[in-house]
Amino acid sequence: MAIPFIDNSQWSLPQWLQLESRSVATFDRSYVVLALCMYMIGLIMVASSSMPIAERLFANPFHFIIRHMIYIVLSLTVAAIALQVPMSRWHQYSGNLLLLAIVLLVVVLVIGRNVNGSTRWIAVGPITIQAAEPAKLFFFCYLSAYLVRRRDEVMENVKGFAKPLVVFGVLSGLLLMQPDLGTIIVMFVTTFGLLFLAGAKLWQFIAISGVGITLLSMLAYFSPYRWARVTGFLDPWKDPFGSGYQLTQSLMAYGRGETFGQGLGNSVQKLEYLPEAHTDFVMAVLAEEFGFVGISVILLLSMTLVFKALLLGRKAVNQEKYFEGFFAYAIGIWFCFQAAVNIGASAGIVPTKGLTMPLISYGGSSMIIMTIAVVILIRIDHEIRLQSIQATSRTTGANKSTKKKRTKVKKTEIIEGEND
Predict the structure, then answer these.
(1) How many CB atoms lie within 10 A of CB 224?
(2) Could you tell me the pTM of the whole model?
(3) Which domain holds residue 12?
């Protein structure tokens, strides 16, 4: 029995989840499994690393755990809604989403909440929204749509290559006012990676990359607190109770973890020796409690998700679904770089940048946006599979129709032969 043709833009979540057989699946369950595994690991590690500071600040050791669980529920709710949005809508409204990102970055500068010298959060009742998180996703959506419209121009001349960099420059200027250099670096790397995959010429890529790296280096050099981070990263033991304090404490956590770790709940550094243990440095606590094996598991989960995103992007581009392909590429590069920076910063490989570990670190805005990104990958995969199913259905239907016609002609010839 052939599967009927269905307009995928009208599909809702319950329908396409139910439409599957033993031989044909309409979505890739491994994305769901990977995300849920990272959710659960994140919940356990936030619970383990946040209790001491929650007890001191709020007289409730479960304060951050409860909020993290609420964020997970919110993320799953938003995921259920986002899963029903066809990719054509993301493409259609990419410009509007970019404007929304700019508005959010302006609003946070006007009415944002200041924490530790940075103005990055918009308070909406008990919930705080970090404007930079949706800005990343919306910018990558816009960039993917731009590359569909102007791909030939990007490949042929500098003008097409430079246009999205102007938009990136506007967003970077707003982010620097917060200030948030970490988000700028993530967007910078993802943008150039995506432009390179879209076919930009190598000399353009190298030239503008060199300019960008020079500008970022100057931003770090002429900002005292950023330069202190860089010098603290180069030699944290030179000032272990000053600029190098956070990194030295993190390195101690890694050292104590060794191969198999000290066991869940047995971290010493989380007892308020290591600042931000449940957010930016949750991987240091995980390394102390689960050792090299624990870090390896996280890297395996993250890299599996990244490779699946990149392979999905290639598959979409090969089927001439360019917007979906570029968007999947962008999400893959984004996940890869942010995870690498988070783990690298806690291990002393790169300077501290204040980036969360995707789907693991404490932080509602990051978790919700990262969940939407995973949902977009599921939706892209679903639409590609559906297209293949429909093509197979049409081919099967055409073959059956041709076979019936041949059978009918054959019967007619036999009857005519008998009459003769």
Answers:
(1) 8
(2) 0.85
(3) 8-394
Q: Do the domain assignments include residue 144?
A: yes
132 belongs to a structural domain: yes
Three-state helix/strand/coil letters over 319-379:
CCCHHHHHHHHHHHHHHHHHHHHHHHHHCCCCCCCCCCCCCCCCCHHHHHHHHHHHHHHHH
User: Structural domain tally of the chain?
Assistant: 1
DSSP state of 250: H
Residue 55 has pLDDT above 60, yes or no: yes
Q: How many CB atoms lie within 10 A of CB 392?
A: 13
Can you read off the two tokens belonging to residue 100?
């929304």
142's CB contacts (< 8 A; 6+ apart) are: 94, 95, 97, 98, 167
Distance CA 354, CA 180 (A): 9
Report the mean per-residue pLDDT for the chain: 82
Give residue 273's Cα distance to chain centre.
30
Whether residue 59 lies inside any domain: the answer is yes
> 43-53 pLDDT, tens per residue?
999 998 888 88
Q: Is residue 311 part of a domain?
A: yes
Residue type, 220: A
